[in-house]
Design brief:
This protein is mostly helical. Among the domains are: about 130 residues, no CATH class; about 60 residues. Helix 1 packs antiparallel against helix 2 and helix 2 crosses helix 5. The longest helix is centred in the last third of the chain and has 46 residues. About 10% of the residues are buried.
Length: about 290
């Protein structure tokens, strides 16, 4: 039923686009779009379900190994899983089998996997959760944490690239939390931390916010009803923060300019100490060394 509802919602959205933006779209092309949407949805669902069924079978082999072995193999304590990997080692990796098994373990019933497949973004009904999304989500071991990210992925219609960016940040934070307490950070680490914050902001700007079909495009293309007071408040605060950031960037640039001047003085001083006084005086006279 949810597939039917999402298809109706998608067609309604498409009709709006056709009336407002593409008035000359032929009825046959509209029909082709409806058909393609259904076929793409079926393909994504089939890929996820196939992965789940592989996991279901692997699970049964693990819990009922004797049902998959000959008497001789049982006496030799052969693992049916190892035999399976030998058969498929040139086609599938153990990691692919492991991913399928984790999918079944985390969504152990047909109802659970079907509910996952049928999730839809309310503002983009033609968006679909793909097998690539699922594989990335399964890298989150904590079930509650994965559920939160899964819901965010659906609500915001994440591309796999956007989901990967968020998961990379999550795994990075987990690594930091798992580290044992250390001494206060040295100068090298503090400079590196600043660099990492810059890199993260630049990466998210390029891959999530400013890219085509990113956050800003999503806001621009959202229906008026979706631009709630809460969202407008967030947008206003974001704008205010960018004004503050411009002022802070100027302060950073001034501080770095002063640092570069000091570094230049240090380099000049080192040069003076390493050269004979007369040679240094000649270079300074001709403007080769500026202090």
């Amino acid at each position: 039923m949810s597939d039917i509802n999402s298809s109706i919602a998608f067609r309604g959205a498409l009709n709006t686009v056709v009336r407002e933006d593409l008035p000359e779209m032929h009825a046959n092309l509209q029909k082709a779009i409806y058909t393609l949407d259904g076929l793409i949805a079926e393909q994504h669902a089939a890929n996820i379900m196939a992965m789940w069924r592989v996991g279901e079978l692997l699970h049964d082999i693990e819990v009922n190994p004797d049902a998959y072995l000959t008497e001789e193999q049982k006496s030799q304590h052969v693992s049916p899983s190892s035999l399976l990997y030998q058969v498929y080692n040139k086609i599938y990796t153990p990691e692919q089998f492991s991913t399928a098994l984790r999918l079944h373990e985390n969504y152990p019933s047909t109802a659970a996997i079907t509910a996952l497949i049928n999730q839809r973004c309310p503002t983009r009904p033609n968006w679909r959760l793909t097998a690539s999304h699922v594989q990335l989500l399964l890298t989150v071991n904590d079930q509650e944490q994965r559920k939160v990210i899964e819901e965010r992925c659906v609500q915001e219609a994440y591309t796999t690239k956007a989901l990967l960016v968020e998961l990379n940040e999550l795994h990075g934070l987990e690594k930091k939390k798992s580290r044992s307490p250390t001494a206060p950070k040295g100068l090298k680490q503090r400079v590196y931390d600043l660099l990492e914050h810059q890199r993260k902001f630049i990466s998210r700007s390029e891959k999530l916010w400013l890219e085509d079909d990113g956050l800003y495009d999503g806001i621009m293309n959202a229906s008026p009803s979706k631009l709630t007071g809460t969202i407008r408040g967030y947008i206003g605060e974001v704008e205010e923060n960018f004004v503050k950031m411009r002022e802070l960037v100027i302060q950073h640039e001034l501080a770095l300019a002063a640092i570069n001047r000091r570094l230049s003085e240090i380099d000049d001083s080192d040069t003076a100490e390493s050269e004979p006084d007369e040679a240094y005086a000649v270079k300074k006279h001709h403007g080769i060394i500026n202090r």
